[in-house]
Amino acid sequence: MNVDILFTHYNYIVVALLLTIGAYMLVETPNLVKKVIGMNVFQSGIFLFFITSAYRTGGSPPIVGHGGASTTYVSPLPHVLILTAIVVGVSLTAVALALIVRIYTEYGTLDERVLREVRADE
Amino acid sequence: MTDIASLRPLAAVAVPALAAIAILASRSRPNVREGWTILAAASTFAVVASMVPGVLAGDTYVTSLGTFVPLGDGSVEFVLQADALGMLFGLLASFLWLVTSFYSIGYMRGLGEHAQTRYFASFAASVASAVGVAFASNLLVLFVFYELLTVATYPLVTHDETAEARAAGRKYLAYTFGGGVAVLAGTVLVYVLAGSIAFTPGGIEGLATADPMLARAAFALLVAGFGVKAALMPVHSWLPDAMVAPTPVSGLLHAVAVVKSGVFGIARVVLEVFGPDTVSNLGVGVPLAAVAAFTLLAASIIALRQDNLKRRLAYSTVSQLSYIVLGLGIGASMGGDAARYALIGGLLHIPAHAFMKLTLFFCAGAMHVETHTDDISDMAGIGKRMPLTMSAFAVAAAGMAGIPLVAGFVSKFYLLIGTASGGEVAFTVALLVSGVLNIAYFWPVVYQAFFESETADGHDRKPLIENPLGGRFAVAADGGNPNDGPNQQSSASGRPTADPDGEYAVDRNPSDHTRSGDVGDDASETVDSGHGEHTEHTDTHHDVDDHAHDHHHGGPPAGGWERRSWLGGEGSWFVVAPILTAATGSIILGVIPGRAVFLQLVEYIVSAATVVGVFA
Amino acid sequence: MNELLPLLVAIPLVGAVASITLGSWSDRLAWPVTFLTMLVHVGLATAVASTVYRGGTPLATAVGGFTPPFGIELVVDGLNAAILVLVSAVAVGVLVYARRAGPHSVAFHTGYLLLVAGLSGMTITGDMFNLYVFLEITGLAAYALVATGDDGRAAVGALKYLLVGTVGASLFLIGIGYAFVATGTLNMADLAEKLATADPTLVGASFALVVTGLAVKTALFPLHTWQPEAYASAPDSVSGLIAALVSTVSAYALARVTFSVYTVDFLTSSAFAQEFLLGLAGISIVAGSLLAVMQTEIKRMLAYSSVSQFGLVVAGVAIANEAAVTGSLIHLVGHAVMKGGLFLAAGALAVVAGARTVEDYDGLGARAPLLSAAFAVLSLSMVGIPPAVGFVGKWYIALGAIQAESWPIAVVILVSTLLTLAYFLRLVERMYFRTSSDDVTSSTGTGATAVADGGDDTDDGLTRPSAGMVAVVVVAALLAVGLGPLVSTFEPLLEPTLETLLQL
């Protein structure tokens, strides 16, 4: 196994870490707000994955005239996509937090376990 | 053979279907509602009968309703066609519906049943589906009506709305839809194998050359699927349970339309999907006949031990239906005249059994309406009370056993000749043994009714029923749990068991003797309906409570049966006349089978199915 | 007609803005504005669909003048034209129902139109990333709509839906990322060409992720966990709409991606792709039905029933021959009508009798004859009684399975009839053959449960269903029966599309 791959592809390692941590938080924490944070971490992993995929070694920003025609550019498309995805992510977070606020006013808790008990008595 | 484009096959299906809607619409006026039933029954029969001469002349009436589930080049035509085989079943169902309609009215009004609108509407819908089954031109159309028939009869089985009726309904749907799934699977398989599922006399061409294993699988699926409604063992047990339904339902549907639709399906599969030729090549006819032979013997033995009359009749139905299946199975696997005789016998038994069994059920229902007697052990001396009814019963029972001059003899004779001359002596023996058993379980009923007395020492003991293994005791005759059968009489006293509501099966449905002979007077009906269905229901339950004090059980009243005259003093003519009609029908079929249209139809069918085969 | 395609998304978006602006001025304007928007939408959708079916060729347009594969393309062919009309028509129907049944808030109507915009976008887009964006718009609108129920339960249901739904969409996005890395393009048609020659490992991983993501949205077992609670806690109109459309369009997206992006060649040639889908479908059919039988709450039961029915649809997609895909599309449309109708009928019956659980259905046949009859007809159609549409879909899928000689799935498909019967029969039996144990539910425990269940029947004091509500349910029942025979006219229209999709 080539150890170099760990150093040349460290971005992907971070992606994997973010995805794992995010997913773990999402599943494991009983706190609803932390679940939403976990969701954000998970999405950040995806964003990083896309941005990394756009990168070309020695590439320059894809702005014509800046570095001349002969230079390698990084791919501009993933940046645009991720910009959209970030907007989507922000909207999701907003809706999620709004729902959590309502749950809190209704049940007075953010803890999933307590919530389950309260609702079982309903 | 020509195809005649005609709307008549469609009309035969549409008239009862529309009648169901009309019946629902006129639910608040019982007389109008019953008028629709009679009108629809009469016109359905007229439409079907009007096609008989053409069909006998070799024509086929066809209504094409366009394509159904097309796919690429292939498509299934949604066509209704009145060919000879379809006519056999269609004519039977529509004629007996007319007879049963009158009986239903007398029966339902005589008992003051609840939800009569639902009953009559479902009945009309069931007949529409049955005629649809008869006139289906391919397996898919047949399947469509086969499933609709299941749905339409479900409310009739569950009519009583008691726990046991619901259980019977669930069992009924589970069995028949299970069968439906098998039919669907078989249909798809045939379609994939042969590229066509249209009924063709002599069999669909592509099937003869198809992969034999898959073809056998398709045959097994189709026959197993139709076998559920035909009550072949081991999938017969819904039928005795379904006897919880009102007697006209047991009579028309569970002795004629529903069970015959299963048998009819098998007939179509054997004669017009696979064809006798392919069936014999695949070697699937004899196993089918063997299952049928087992069923007819086992069911006869079980019938011996049933004390409840309707349950005994149900097992008798299971047994008799297998005569038909046996005829088809064996007929398709032999050659020459023997095959022809066996097929004729099997098919002719469809109408023969229908007439006789309808008579028997009508009689059972008449006894229930008039005297609330459901158990054979309570029927000693009942011949005095209901002379005409019991005479009709005796005639039909004789026919069942194959006594000459009644319908059953002719068909059984053909079956015996067919099996014997074809060398299948084992089946001949089975048929003969079953005939003896038929006598054994029907004769006691007739004997008791006329030659025994209801007084304490006026009748003999019934060892088969009273002994430890008899039907009255905890060991269920069908081998199951004693409590699983709705009508299983398991208490040692010989009295019907109370159902969970504390009502007795016999008295669950209230009756009113003063009204039974007076169907024209429906004042109370109208009042009930005026309150809407729900009120009607509550009223009914009040009745039940009142009656529970009067009659706890059937059987002779304290002073013995009163003697009634032979001229209809025994009950409403609405009940007696249909009994006599059906009984007369059984005799006509037995005395002059050549004149009655059914034998001609059957001969025509058999020659069409075998003429293209090797037997020609 | 080509240039009108973007309007299918734009009209509901504009309508959403209009309804919230006018609605903030006067509450009572929200419904009329929404209804008007939907009428325009349904007209346009019908016009587009009829052009496609009459012309026999797909309509396509590049949004903003950027030519594909760089720009976003909108495509309507025979497969999605039907879905488009379905989305539009069902949305109109549910809106009529919601007129009296509620919710009446402006936010509901805005969310409603946003949902329609998202669904229409998902249906007509020809670009993978665009599909993701519309998937999320649909999701966001659906989460918000579920939460329009008044109580805490709806909020909890919506949050669970949001968390699971977002994970699903994220998996879908990663899958797109893999496909993008492998090919450098996002246009579906372009992807289909380039994926054929791309690194099979990347393509396989991408397929697995995309399918898993869409399976979450479609709610296939075991990824269905969000669905029962979301459907059960949402107001009746919303559960009707979401049950009829959201999973349907997701399942359509699954079919579209499978055939138009990864192609049938990939499905059949690559190891485990087809088996993966078939396994998912088969388990869904069986497990969904078994779970449905175990439910006591009607709306949860219907939700699990959807899990099972979508298993059937995906099975058809996985079998991928002409008959099976035809069946999938028919069942997709049929199921939307039937399940939407069932949810709306359940809502209306709750208004009549406070009936929210299986036990509450005792004797309903007498109390609400028309609604009960419609419910029974819809149930029987779902079971697959011919000639209703539920049967026709099943016939094609079963035919496809047997033609493909994939026996295990064929058995599951056929037996699913009995499984479906198991959970619908008990309702029909209770409605017609049992009498209600307590006729006055409002003062008893059952009535109280109905309130706690999050029904909208309490907030606006509806005591009996309006004529509009009953009419919508009855129309759904009639359609469930009537669409079956109509398939024979529809199927030939579908054939050219299927030939392209399945590369026949």
Automatic annotation (TrEMBL), chain A:
Membrane topology: Multi-pass membrane protein
GO cellular component, one term: membrane
Keyword annotations: Membrane, Transmembrane, Transmembrane helix
Record InterPro entries: CPA3_antiporter_subunitC (IPR050601), NUOK/Mnh_C1-like (IPR039428)
Protein name: Monovalent cation/H+ antiporter subunit C
Membrane-spanning parts: 6-27, 39-57, 77-101
A Pfam family annotated for this UniProt entry: Oxidored_q2
Taxon lineage: Archaea, Methanobacteriati, Methanobacteriota, Stenosarchaea group, Halobacteria
Entry-linked PANTHER family: ANTIPORTER SUBUNIT MNHC2-RELATED, MULTISUBUNIT SODIUM_HYDROGEN ANTIPORTER, MNHC SUBUNIT
Subcellular location: Membrane
From TrEMBL, chain B:
GO cellular component terms, semicolon-separated: plasma membrane
Positions of region (Disordered): 472-564
InterPro entries tied to this protein: ComplexI-like_HydComp, ND/Mrp_TM
Transmembrane regions: 6-25, 37-58, 78-99, 120-146, 172-194, 214-233, 284-304, 313-335, 341-367, 388-407, 413-443, 573-592, 598-615
Bias type Basic and acidic residues, positions: 505-518, 528-549
Protein topology in the membrane: Multi-pass membrane protein
Alphabetized UniProt keyword annotations: Cell membrane, Membrane, Oxidoreductase, Transmembrane, Transmembrane helix
GO molecular function, a single term: oxidoreductase activity
Compositional bias (Polar residues): 484-494
Keyword Membrane included in the entry's annotation: yes
Main location: membrane
Protein name: Multicomponent Na+:H+ antiporter subunit D
TrEMBL record, chain C:
Keyword Cell membrane (UniProt): yes
One BP term from GO: ATP synthesis coupled electron transport
Entry keywords, A to Z: Cell membrane, Membrane, Transmembrane, Transmembrane helix
Disordered as annotated region, ranges: 438-458
Domain NADH:quinone oxidoreductase/Mrp antiporter transmembrane: 126-420
Family matches, as InterPro entries: CPA3_Na-H_Antiporter_D, NADH_UbQ_OxRdtase, ND/Mrp_TM
Entry membrane topology: Multi-pass membrane protein
One GO term describing the cellular component: plasma membrane
Compartment(s): Cell membrane
Segments passing through the bilayer: 29-49, 78-98, 105-125, 131-149, 161-181, 201-220, 241-264, 276-294, 301-320, 340-358, 370-397, 409-428, 467-487
Keyword Transmembrane: yes
GO molecular function: NADH dehydrogenase (ubiquinone) activity
Composition-biased stretches (Low complexity): 438-453
Protein name in UniProt: Multisubunit sodium/proton antiporter, MrpD subunit (TC 2.A.63.1)
Species whose genome carries this gene: Halogranum rubrum
